[in-house]
Amino acid sequence: MQCNPTPLQGLLLLTPTVYTDARGHFFESFNAKTFKQVAGIQPEFVQTNESLSKRGVLRGLHWQTAPKAQGKLVRVVHGAVFDVAVDLRENSETFGQWYGCELSSTNHIQLWIPPGFAHGFLTLTDTAITSYQVTEHHSPEHEHCMAWNDPVLNIDWPLKQAGVAKPTLSPKDEQGVAFTSLS
What pathway or pathways are given for this protein in its record (predicted)? Predict the structure, then answer.
């Protein structure tokens, strides 16, 4: 596995070694020993989530606050998404900054998102199946949603690449709060 840091503290791009032959491919999407050796992290996952999204669906930006903050290991099983993480850790040097990258079933890149980050993604293909392991159970009373189009964050969502002028949002995501309301 290859581990590459991003500009945001603790946010990591993880690319597994993929073994390909005439039958298809094989890779380890998670191995505790490898994660500790290569990435220096030891997440204890308690839940695995999977979502199926159609082209132009934007999910997020979601996060849970302490004591139920979640770390997430995100990957795409089918299709492609533009995945975004926003650093909401007030003591972080990268507080309020975002990072986005394409995760796909072709590139096999995974994104490690530490606790304290908001997370969301935009579906770039006709359908995408996203799987993410989390370090804390879902807790509605600790769950929050930030506006995907917050002008302060100014996330450059690739709507044109997704083939849509406006993303499809859930009612909850349409009610996301402004970044400035967090301070």
Answer: Carbohydrate biosynthesis; dTDP-L-rhamnose biosynthesis
Domains in the chain, please, with CATH?
A: 2-182 (2.60.120.10)
Q: Is the pLDDT of residue 183 over 90?
A: no
Q: Which of 25, 132, 137, 144 is catalytic?
A: 132
Query: Sign of the CA dihedral 106, 88, 71, 175?
Result: negative
pTM of the model: 0.94
Active-site residue, 132 included: yes
The percent of the chain in helix, strand and coil, each rounded to the nearest 5, is: 15, 40, 45
Say which of 62, 78, 108, 142 is annotated catalytic: 62
Give CA–CA dist 123/60, Å, rounded: 12
- Judge whether residue 132 has pLDDT over 80: yes
